Input
Amino acid sequence: MVSDGATFLLCGTAAVGVLSSFLLQQYAQREVNWLSFLTSLLGFVMSFGIIALIPYDVWEALTGQADQAGNIERPSQVLVDTSWEAIYWATSFLCWLLCPVLMEFEVAGDFTTAGRLKTSLRRNAVWYVLYMIAGSLILVWVFAGGGGILVSTGGGLVALAAWCMAASNAWGLLLSTFLMGFGLVAVPRHLWRLAAPGEQLQTLYSQAIAMDEARLSTQFELQDVISEARTELASRDTTVWDTKLERAFTMLQVTLEECELIHCELTNGARAPREENRGGRLQRGGDHSTRVDLLAQLHRALKQAGLEARRASCRWNDLVQTCLLLEDIEEQMFPSTVELASGSWQGGGCVSGFCARTICRWPLARTCWHSLMMLWLRTLRPRVLRVLAGICAVLSACIVLGQLTMFSNSWSFSLLSLLFQKEHGFGLTQLYCILPLSYMVCTAYWSVFRLKIAGWYGLYPNHNTDTASLLWCASILARLAAPLCYHFLLLIRVKGTAFQAMMGQMNVVPVLGKSFNDVFPCLVGFLCVCNLLNVYSRLVQLCGLDALEFEWGATSGGGDMGDLLAEGRRLVERERRRLSEDSLLQLQSRSSSEQLIPLRLQIAHLIDDGTLPNDWNSLAT
Output
């Protein structure tokens, strides 16, 4: 049994690691350093490992109850217990300590590794000090025998671990409850609107104006910081030599050139205007050490402005591509065989374009691929999306009903708990667990990127995700994984799991213990009703908490709604024309550079490049 459990855990860990590394490689920038990438990968692997281990833990508990062997500790259960302890505390270390330090380290403006690390620790010191003060107070109270907690938990270290676990779980439960209150309603609604492109386009058009303004704002901010950095570099005094100051100017020059390239790329080749006479915010007086510190602040502002401008541009490009796709589907402008073969339809991402070109090298595969795409776009897409929306709506209703009665031990509205009243086979138990648990995780994590307070962090395809975004996403997923899984186990009312035994240590903690986990999730129902009736945005605005508003919330039908939609449609149409002009310019530049090359050789070059399939040469001639 130990070998079976060990084999399952090893195979699951390997599968999660391979899948996570493949996905992160498609998203991460090529400039991401190996330590940050491995930390992000480890955070994703451990988070997915917690989620994947829950179904196995539930099956172990149900099997033990069916065999009436609850008082016998089986070898596989010892393995699961050990795995939970190691995964949980390693994940906590990653998301609460290592990821925040590395995030601040990446954006620090200091010019040495030690200086960047010192700045990172100083910026995180506020939280560390709060943790230390809280821990010291807890230790004083514990060793003084406060509330009998020392006796009930078996020692001061155990009590401290229980308090840390309770605080982390309370934070994760607060965030996951808030996120699920939006996602349980928004995900089915989003899928239903996708089945009718016209409805979804109205939502996207209303977002296009604000997103375009944010994109231009970040570009203007980057331009201002670039101009300021140029001014400071122009004021460089070469008559006085100082090693630290020269290194600061050299690294600032390198970062400035990188940001100029970013600005040039985001503005289609328009470089920021030279403003040598513009005064910077740095003070010219003071010693060299003070000047280096001020240059470090400018260096940090330059790096931050470049990151924000690139993230805003990625978000804008994603919205434009989605609008163009939905407009084509609504107008029934479906791709031709050539567009699918070259992977050029709607941009053809790095992975999708490569797969399309690989598949379409064979005539039969190309014909079948085009037929399947037409069948999906014309017939299956709206029906499948509506079916998925209905399934998600049923799952949302089941989850909300179970949460409303989670505080009661005698009666329950949880329909999910009916699936675990008796023992099932291993595969069926895994399916019953994975489907609702994955849906809860998806609704919470999907809502994170719709929350305006999250800033510009996100996962952007085609190697556009920077280091700080990778670390932030891994940190948020790691912080939500354990509270969501514990919340799921309380929802399905399965007793005797190893994960519940480990998390049960926090039940002795006042306020944040068992009562908090049983009562607080009832707020999900209230939040779902607010989002379902489209009153959440109004409540947030009345309370002055605009940062807690979701981007994809329902738009209010004011008198100027038609003007907003028309303006958003005009912006998307402008981007469509720009993309068409860029494609035309590329074709003209290629034709001008290859005008002396015979047509047969040009087609052969396109085949070697992967733009056309192997048999296109014979068809062209």
About this structure: Residues 208-311 form one domain. DSSP finds 21 helices and no strands in the chain.
